[in-house]
Design brief:
There is one protein chain. The chain has 341 residues and is of the alpha/beta class. Helices cover 35% and strands 18% of the residues. The protein has 10 helices and 14 strands. An 8-stranded parallel barrel has the order 7-8-9-10-11-12-13-14, surrounded by 5 helices. Helix 3 packs parallel to helix 4 and helix 5 packs across helix 6. It is elongated.
């Protein structure tokens, strides 16, 4: 349930109303805008008398929310959430590119790639240390040593780092990692999500291989219900009948999620397509669709990469992509502004 208060509502009256609502066993999510205050009620609202609330002088409107996700719901939080990662902002008109290799392989590789992507405009550095692979015989990552090489490269280049966590027992190893990525295979690992809700780390939550947008938001809700609202959603393609691309990039998810939630939404065209030649056009399309950022795999020697070389860009190709995306962003922001009028 959502209660929209009038702009002239006095704080004393608001506090009295909130005390009454809490006496009914409800949690209250307060969203304070420039011209409006919204109270989002979480819990069993069946005992709430809508007519009684509507009759109050400070209440403008009251409406029930049918969606099962509450904290992630834009109806509870109309303004875009902006995630600040050590001064790098994502969401609310702040577009960022996360770039780096699929897997950390060596100190030389990470230092070279980190400097290259930073020079091209990327603000966050990605790199996999713990790699969930379909085959048990495939390269599984450098694990703790990989995290150390990643964070060292990030610190040397002044870039916050992003890496995938697979088990909550690994959390102490990620102390110097600013953004914890929850991969597609773990999107519904609810025990992991609940534990991440008790951290203060930024969580990059990827959509599962065959999950709906509502299921993605319910996974975000698991994290948010624990108190952590620093979440970035990521569309990375879904499994379809296509035998050409690795997955099918669902670009419609971007504007749809923008309507459904206030959380930032980024796109990973590398995993979505699996082909380096498709990363540029899909990045441009994602930016035009209103994404808040991109996650791009970049490798200094894709032909000899230990993981996902086919979908990785060389540094020079990434630099061209970053420049091309800059040309699209003004159009995308103008379209979003017009749509909000």
């Amino acid at each position: 349930m959502v209660i929209v208060l009038k702009s002239n509502a006095q704080q004393k009256s608001i506090d009295s109303l909130m005390d009454f609502l809490r006496s009914l066993g409800l949690d209250i999510h307060v969203s304070q805008g420039d011209d409006v205050t919204i109270l989002g009620l979480v819990g069993d609202t069946s005992r709430v008398d809508i007519d009684l609330l509507t009759a109050l002088d400070i209440v403008k409107t009251v409406r029930r929310i049918s969606e099962p996700y509450k904290d992630a719901n834009r109806k509870f939080h109309p303004a875009d959430t902006i995630i600040d990662i050590d001064g790098v902002k994502i969401g609310g008109g702040n577009f960022q590119i996360i770039a780096g290799p699929c897997s950390v392989e060596s100190e030389e590789q990470m230092n070279f790639v980190a400097k290259s992507v930073k020079d091209a405009g990327a603000k966050l550095l990605r790199g996999g240390a713990f790699k969930p692979r379909t085959s048990p015989y495939a390269f599984q990552g450098l694990r703790e040593n990989g995290l150390q090489l990643l964070t060292q490269a990030g610190q040397a280049n002044g870039m916050p780092v992003v890496s995938e966590i697979m088990d909550i027992a690994q959390l102490p190893l990620f102390e110097d990692v600013q953004v914890l990525q929850v991969g597609a295979r773990n999107m519904q690992n609810f025990e992991l999500l609940k534990e991440l809700g008790h951290t203060s780390k930024v969580i990059l939550l990827k959509r599962g291989l065959a999950n709906t947008l509502e299921e993605l938001l319910m996974s975000a809700e698991y994290i948010m219900s624990g108190g952590n609202e620093r979440i970035i959603l990521c569309e990375r393609g879904i499994r379809t009948i296509s035998a050409v691309t690795r997955n099918t990039l669902d670009l419609s998810a971007v504007p749809l999620l923008k309507e459904m939630t206030h959380l930032p939404v980024i796109v990973d065209p590398s995993h979505a397509t699996g082909l380096a030649g498709l990363v540029l056009p899909m990045s441009l399309a994602a930016a035009a669709a209103g994404a808040d950022g991109l996650m791009i795999e970049v490798h200094n020697d894709p032909e000899h990469a230990l993981c996902d070389g086919r979908q990785s860009l060389r540094p020079e190709a990434f630099a061209q992509l970053a420049k091309a995306v800059e040309q699209v962003l003004p159009f995308a922001y103008k379209r979003e502004a017009e749509a909000s009028l």
